[in-house]
Design brief:
The complex is a heterodimer of chains A (593) and B (317). Chain A is of the alpha+beta class. Chain A has 21 helices and 16 strands. Chain A has helices spanning 2-17, 21-29, 35-44, 47-89, 98-111, 132-149, 163-175, 189-194, 210-216, 218-222, 249-255, 265-278, 337-351, 366-372, 386-394, 431-443, 445-453, 505-516, 534-552, 558-572, 574-592; strands at 117-124, 154-161, 182-184, 198-199, 225-226, 229-230, 233-234, 242-248, 283-285, 307-308, 323-324, 375-382, 403-410, 421-425, 461-462, 468-469. In chain A, the strands form five sheets. In chain A, strands 1, 2, 3, 4, 7 and 14 form a six-stranded mixed beta sheet that branches. A four-stranded mixed beta sheet of chain A has the order 9-12-8-13. In chain A, helix 1 crosses helix 3, helix 9 (210-216) crosses helix 16 (431-443) and helix 19 (534-552) packs antiparallel against helix 20. The radius of gyration of chain A is 35 Å and the shape is globular. In chain B, the strands form two sheets. In chain B, strands 1-2 form a two-stranded antiparallel sheet. A two-stranded antiparallel sheet of chain B has the order 3-4. In chain B, helix 5 (120-130) packs across helix 8 (174-199). The longest helix of chain B has 34 residues, at 83-116. Classes of the chains: A alpha+beta (593), B mainly alpha (317). The interface between A and B is large, with 38 and 37 residues.
């Protein structure tokens, strides 16, 4: 019996200590004091048993190992499968995949009796997110209209990417040379054209795009030109931005001040000083966008004059040479008197406490400061009517206060104003059809609204005022398809049906009027090709970022810092850029004659 | 040829025996490494060929292979401009300080954590020290803004009541501010490696030292630090390869990209970002990272050579 116990015990011990060779050795080496244990150790030294146990352990470990490895591999494979499934299922209407689209196209083409070409439209969803069924329905309606009513020989595939990732998706698709037809280029037509991602449109101007060309005129098309070729069709909309001053009504009434008497920044200063006297803790003017005071736009009184930034940002923050006033000589905007006067004004305002300090780094804007009561007024640049602006501010988003609006100024249209355009991808298989499609969008009212508002009855209904309203039971959160903001990025805005909250009938009239009476800068249509001076542009850009915000937000003393700024710009090579720009501008004017 | 009769009846020579044994031992290991190796090859080694972009005028239509060569033109914006000296000086100086402090302070933290050891305080203190590492730089930027804001900031309203400083317009304070923020964020995480090394040191050595009458400081100086030497050398060598890189979040988000601070906070990465935001030039961006990687590569080879001459065991490769 003793032997049996010892047997079991020793098997147990063996199993425990088998894995650790060292311990096993130690255990075997250590001399036991007790006789009983001596018997156990003698048992342990039985070689056959040891071999058997070892073999069993080895097999066990081997099987465990294989099990573990296969479990890991399977889980990885399952993960991958799940991710693919998720990608396919979770593929919302906002993500387009050209491969699946092309499979769609193939089946469509097979189903159609004619041999129909397919043109893809790639657009940004802006602030809407149409559903996949909604897009499909509209696609079918559009194709039906194109083929059956207009007798075209192509169909359309619509891709809508969400606004945040739109440009990177479009850029990737274009750089991969995919078959994209009509592509919304945001404001980057010239850089896309420079890198060869867009197809030139010169051949179609007399042909497919003839009506659009007659609608907009040569100068509009010139804004999308690059190196002598046209690469995009600009959106024909009200690019005239007006400057509106928005102030707190209750304080105005307290001060008995008539807002309509403010015509320029100088008048505005008077008002702000009065406010400061009464409310020393309140900032008179707070910025609309984060980080910039943006008082520089437009020709607000004698402060800025007409400045055409020749394609650079019309806020003046990337200017590598501009035309000031009526001159046709390209100058360094930052060395001009206009800039100096403006900076002195803002610096004075900052010293008197009329604007918040440290605007360049502060995350606060009017959206935070007006409701909190620490701000009195702000400036808004928009093409909407004053009533729309008033509605926006009195809607409660800016606190419980009431706001009054007065228009201060209008912008002059320079090349920088025309931003949105649509181009044809360089890899498009049927560019003539794409050009024809663009012509339809710009000139055909029914087709245009079909694309923007969707299908009548499903996505919108026309109410008694001629407005495109939501149908019964549908609102902004569950409408299948409505991308009316496309009115601003594609097509002719004056053809868009009015709708509530977006554009009213009065606004439309204003737009059409403004487009007829707009003031064009002499160099409207010119776009600068910077490929020869990229080093200088990048160095200049760096210097601008260093000084511009400090100077235009009133944080740096212009007397001291503008000379430093200008000398550093010159060291960075801005004069080379100006010379190159002047050359190209002279050539542009000469070609116009 | 010496042929041996194996157990299973096959005739094999000595070389083949060795090969078989080696294979049997190593095959499973190699198989385990294989997925990782394939991933590394595809993700890290194959794209290396893209380094040619730094010398090309990249055009999306022409693609990689057909874009025009332009020699060293893409490097001009890094070296020919006036800002080049500032940014390279800033990058190198900051990294130099970070390397030194990045050894001293994490070791101090690690020793402190080790002393707390198994006490209940450790459960709170250790995660608390490591926590700042996982906060995004954007948020850290706003935390610093809450401190240094000139109108509502903590520092200006409590410590410097009347003599408020406009922190975001004075570049001279920022080297200190950036170093403090960097240490606060990364010291805890970097100390983990050292904590593991210290935990591996045998307790008996410390006991023996205590018996011999060594105080805490002496123990640290004579036991902990020398035994941490391999770890320190390895980590320092690895950080030398990154000496021309900088943490973009730290140098862009924390100073809120304020232009007036550029003289002391602009590094190569923020310069390239600011310069190329307007002109979307792939070739120039590639040239910048080409310079950073190749310079780092040469430096680490040189440093490794020096270390291997002095102390063969501690060299990286």
């Amino acid at each position: 019996m003793y032997r049996h116990c010892a047997d079991t015990l020793c098997c147990f011990f063996n199993k425990m200590i088998k894995n650790v060779q060292k311990v096993k050795r130690d255990v075997q080496i250590k001399m036991p004091k007790n006789d009983m244990f001596a018997m156990i150790y003698i048992q342990v030294k039985d070689p056959d048993k040891i071999k058997l146990e070892e073999k069993k352990m080895k097999r066990l470990k081997k099987y465990m190992g294989i099990l573990l490895a296969s479990a890991l591999t399977l889980s990885l494979a399952a993960c991958g499968q799940q991710a693919v499934e998720q990608a396919e299922n979770g593929q919302t209407e906002q993500q387009g995949q050209v491969e699946s689209g092309q499979a769609e196209q193939a089946t469509e083409a097979k189903e159609g009796s004619k041999n129909l070409k397919t043109v893809t439209i790639a657009m940004s969803g802006m602030q809407s997110s149409p559903t996949e069924e909604g897009i499909k329905q509209v696609e079918d309606a559009v194709n039906d209209y194109l083929v059956n009513e207009l007798g075209k020989d192509y169909q359309v595939d619509i891709y809508i990417w969400d606004v945040g990732s739109y440009f990177s998706n479009a850029n990737m698709a274009l750089s991969a040379g995919e078959d994209l037809g009509v592509v919304f280029t945001m404001a980057n037509t010239s850089s896309l054209a420079a890198s060869g991602q867009l197809a030139p449109l010169n051949d179609y101007l007399d042909d497919e795009l003839k009506e659009t060309y007659e609608l907009m005129g040569e100068r509009w098309f010139d804004t999308c030109s690059f190196n002598g070729n046209i690469y995009g069709v600009p959106a024909y909309r009200d690019i005239v931005m007006d400057t509106y001053l928005v102030c707190r009504t209750d304080i105005l009434e307290e001060l008995n001040y008539d807002l309509d008497s403010v015509h320029s920044l100088v008048d505005f200063e008077e008002l702000l000083l009065l406010v400061k006297e009464k409310y020393p803790d309140m900032y008179g003017y707070v910025p609309y966008d984060q980080g910039k005071l943006q008082l520089l736009l437009g020709k607000t009184g004698t402060m800025t004059g007409n400045v055409d930034f020749l394609g650079d940002s019309y806020y003046g923050e990337t200017s590598t040479g501009a035309l000031i006033g009526d001159s046709t000589t390209v100058e360094n905007f930052y060395a001009s008197d206009v800039f100096k006067d403006y900076c002195s004004l803002v610096y004075r305002w900052a010293q008197e406490g009329l604007v918040p300090p440290e605007t360049s780094v502060s995350p606060d804007t009017c959206a935070e400061m007006l409701p909190a009561g620490t701000g009195f007024s702000t400036l808004v640049y928009t093409g909407n009517s004053p009533e729309t602006v008033k509605e926006q501010f009195n809607s409660g988003a800016y606190g419980d206060y009431d706001y009054s609006v007065v228009k201060i100024d209008s912008m002059v249209i320079g090349s920088s104003s025309v931003g949105s355009a649509c181009g044809i991808g360089a890899g498009c298989s049927c560019p003539e059809s794409a050009a024809d499609l663009m012509n339809e969008i710009w000139t055909n009212e029914y087709f245009y609204n079909l694309l923007c508002y969707g299908i009548e009855g499903v996505d919108y209904v026309m109410d008694e005022n001629g407005y495109a309203a939501y149908p019964e039971g549908v609102d902004a959160t569950n409408v299948p398809y409505r991308v009316a903001q496309w009115g601003w990025i594609i097509g002719d805005l004056s053809k868009l049906y009015p709708s509530e909250g977006l554009i009213s009938a009065e606004d439309k009239k204003l737009v059409t009027e403004k487009m007829k009476n707009v003031e064009y800068a002499p160099a409207f249509g010119f776009s600068f090709d910077a490929s020869a001076v990229t080093t200088e542009v990048s160095a200049v850009q760096n210097v601008i970022t260093q000084y511009y915000y400090g100077l235009t937000n009133g944080e740096l003393d212009p007397e001291e810092y503008i000379p430093v700024f200008v000398s550093e710009l010159e060291d960075a090579g801005i004069n080379d850029i100006i010379a190159a720009k002047q050359e190209q501008l002279d050539k542009y004017f000469a070609d116009k004659q | 040829m010496n042929r041996f009769l194996m157990e299973n009846g096959k005739m094999q020579n000595r070389l083949q025996m060795k090969w078989n044994v080696a294979l049997k031992k190593k095959a499973p290991l190699v198989l385990m490494m294989l997925p990782g190796l394939i991933y590394l090859a595809i993700n890290n080694y194959m794209p290396m060929f893209g380094i040619i972009l730094a010398f090309k005028n990249y055009n999306y239509k022409d693609g990689f292979l057909n874009s025009a060569w332009c020699g060293l033109k893409n490097f001009e914006f890094l070296f020919k401009t006036k800002a080049s000296f500032t940014m390279i000086r800033n990058t190198l100086c900051y990294n130099f300080v970070f390397v030194i402090l990045g050894v001293v302070i994490p070791i101090m933290v690690a020793i402190a954590m080790h002393e707390i050891g198994k006490k209940r305080l450790a459960k709170f203190a250790q995660p608390a020290v490591i926590f700042p590492f996982v906060i995004s730089w954007v948020i850290v930027g706003y935390i610093v803004y809450a401190f240094l804001n000139s109108s509502n900031g903590f520092v200006n309203n409590s410590i410097l009541k009347e003599n408020g400083i406009s922190w975001y317009s004075e570049p001279q304070y920022w080297p200190v501010i950036i170093v403090i923020v960097y240490i606060w964020k990364t010291a805890g995480f970097n100390s983990i490696v050292y904590m593991a090394s210290i935990a591996g040191i045998d307790e008996n050595i410390y006991e023996a030292a205590r018996v011999d009458g060594a105080g805490k400081l002496s123990q640290i100086k004579n036991i902990t630090i020398p035994l941490l030497k391999p770890t320190i050398i390895t980590l320092t060598l690895m950080s030398i390869s990154k000496i021309f890189n900088s943490d973009f979040g730290l140098f862009y988000q924390v100073p809120m990209n304020s232009g007036q601070l550029y003289p002391t906070t602009q590094t190569i990465d923020t310069y390239v970002y600011n310069a190329l935001m307007e002109i979307n030039d792939v070739g120039m961006a590639s040239a910048a990272t080409f310079f950073q990687s190749i310079a780092g590569f040469i430096l680490i080879l040189a440093a490794n050579l020096i270390v291997s001459k002095i102390d063969r065991d501690n060299a990286l490769f």
